[in-house]
Write a structure and sequence with these properties.
Protein name: rhomboid protease
Largest sheet: 2 strands, antiparallel
EC number: 3.4.21.105
Structural class: mainly alpha
Shape: globular
Strand order of the largest sheet: 1-2
CATH architecture: Up-down Bundle
InterPro entries: Peptidase_S54_rhomboid_dom (IPR022764), Rhomboid-like_sf (IPR035952)
Subcellular location: Membrane
Distance between the termini: 48 Å
Order of helices and strands: HHHHHHHHEEHHHHH
Membrane topology: Multi-pass membrane protein
Oligomer: single chain
Length: about 260
Amino acid sequence: MPSLSLPQFDARRVRSYLFRLPLCTRALLVVIVAFWIASLRLSWFQQWAALIPAEMNLQSMYRLNTFPLLHVGFVHMIVNIFALTPLLERFEAENGSLPTLLLFTGPFGLLPGGSYTLIEKFIFHANTAVQGASVWVFLLLASESIKTFKQNPNFALGPYNIPTWTIPLILNLFVAVLVPNTSFLGHLCGLAVGYLWGLGYVKFLVPNEKILRWIEGKLNLLGRLPHYVSVDQKTYGRYGVLPTTATPRPVPTLAPLGSTQRLGP
């Protein structure tokens, strides 16, 4: 009887992958870990950074940008990091470090967070606090599903042909049913923004490429910052000062897991 061989953990491949991560992806992951450490050391930090609809006002708009960085525990954080890293790394490689930084410190928190707050507060009249990078996971999954749909519109499940763009929606439903204390609505808001981005309806959120190139050239970001991904990929290469011979990695289908509080969105 043939023996079953399991894939072995290769620390060198993991280390090589981590060393190849682009700049903005590294920075956001470091901030996520820093937020988790701060939540352990400071008793008020989670209450300060979480997205709480009833506490939203002009003075607390910062919550729309802090809630994706905050997690309720180590397991919540590490699972979201594993799910987010390959998606975020792929997004930055395709769009550049500067657009990625602008989007994930601005609209990609404001739009899903703002939508969640309005729906939760004024339609459902509830006040469920949410936090976690899973909102970005579902946002990026939705964006990737649109690209997949353009190349492969359907996948077969028995006698049925299911549109590939619906996979993140189905995944969100499974997560909501199987994982306690997850925010179906929060993830749905992230999906909506991801679909809009994938369809090109919110591309205006990124400044004109001429402006971005001018900033990159003026500050010499490509020369000063290791692992920086230039906007002008045709001129500088996908990873700027890094070699560009790495083969692209497949799109992951990981989903964030829940914890003791509603995660995500």
